[in-house]
Write a structure and sequence with these properties.
By secondary structure, the chain is of the alpha/beta class. It has a single domain, classed as Spore Coat Polysaccharide Biosynthesis Protein SpsA, Chain A, CATH 3.90.550. Helices cover 43% and strands 21% of the residues. A seven-stranded mixed sheet has the order 3-2-1-4-6-5-7, sandwiched between helices. α1 links the parallel β1 and β2. α1 packs parallel to α2. The longest helix is centred in the middle third of the chain and has 21 residues. The mean pLDDT is 93.
C-alpha cells in the first residue's frame, strides 16, 4: 500500500484539488494530512477528503519536518510518498506504478524522486531554466557522486522500513530537510532519480520572492544542514 502524506499549514486554496488528484489512483492507498495549526479552512477540507488527519496540538509552530514525521507515524503503507499540497501528479496511475515497480525490482532502492516542473499555466522561462538546472544537478549527485539528492520536498517516495531506520526527517532543520533526508538515505541504500515521470507544482515561493533569493536560501540551508546539522533560516515563511 501507498501512504500519501501531505504536510499542511493554511492550504485551503490547493488541498482539495490535490486530494481529488490522489483519489484518481486506482491502487491501494491512504491519504494522510498532517496539519500544523492552520487558521483557514484546511482542516475542514482535510476531514472531508483525507483518510487520516493529524493535528499539531502544541502552541509552538511545527516545522515541515515535524509535520511529515507526524504523518509518517500514522502511515500503514510499505511506501511513503511525501507530497506538498500544491503538487499535481499527471497520469497518476502510471507515475505511482512506475515508482512501485522501481522499488520492487531493486530491493536496494530506499528513496525515489522524480522530475519537477511548474504548472504550464503559470510557468515562466525562468522556471523552466531553473528546473532544467535543478533536475540536472540531481542526476549529477545521485548518478555520478552517489550522494543522495532531491530536487525538493514536493514529491519524495521513501521505503517505510528505511524511513524508520533513519528516524524520519531531522526536526532540527527548518529548511533543506528534504535534501538531508536523501543524503542520509544514500548511506543505507540507493536513492534513485526517475527521469521517466514528473510532477507539477506552482512555484509559488519562487514567484513571490524571486528565483535569485530563493536559490540563495536553498543553497545556504542545504550546506549548513550538511555541515552543521542546522538551518541558516530561523523560520521558513509561509507563502500561499
Amino acid at each position: 500500500m501507498i501512504s500519501f502524506i501531505i504536510p499542511t499549514r493554511n492550504e485551503e486554496k490547493v488541498l482539495k484539488q490535490l486530494c481529488e488528484n490522489l483519489r484518481q489512483y486506482s491502487g491501494s492507498c491512504e491519504i494522510i494530512v498532517s496539519d500544523g495549526n492552520s487558521t483557514d479552512q484546511t482542516l475542514s477540507i482535510a476531514r472531508q477528503h483525507a483518510d487520516i488527519v493529524i493535528t499539531h496540538e502544541q502552541a509552538i509552530r511545527q516545522n515541515i519536518s515535524g509535520g511529515r514525521n507526524a504523518g509518517a507515524k500514522a502511515a500503514k503503507g510499505e511506501y511513503l510518498i511525501f507530497i506538498d499540497a500544491d503538487v499535481t501528479i499527471p497520469n497518476i496511475d502510471h507515475t505511482i506504478q512506475t515508482i512501485i515497480d522501481r522499488f520492487q525490482k531493486n530491493s536496494t532502492i530506499v528513496g525515489i524522486t522524480v522530475k519537477l516542473a511548474v504548472l504550464p499555466e503559470c510557468a515562466t522561462w525562468a522556471d523552466k531554466l531553473v528546473y532544467l538546472y535543478i533536475n540536472a544537478s540531481v542526476v549529477f549527485f545521485n548518478d555520478w557522486l552517489h550522494i543522495g539528492h532531491a530536487p525538493g520536498g514536493e514529491f519524495q517516495a521513501i521505503r517505510s522500513s528505511a524511513f524508520k531506520t533513519l528516524g524520519g526527517f531531522d526536526e532540527r532543520l527548518v529548511a533543506a530537510e528534504d535534501i538531508d533526508m536523501f543524503r542520509r538515505l544514500s548511506k543505507i541504500g540507493k536513492t534513485y532519480f526517475d527521469r521517466s515521470v514528473f510532477v507539477y507544482h506552482t512555484a509559488r515561493r519562487a514567484h513571490a520572492i524571486g528565483w535569485p533569493k530563493l536559490l540563495i536560501q536553498w543553497s545556504a540551508n542545504a550546506i549548513s544542514g550538511w555541515l552543521f546539522k542546522r538551518s541558516v533560516s530561523k523560520e521558513w515563511k509561509v507563502i500561499r
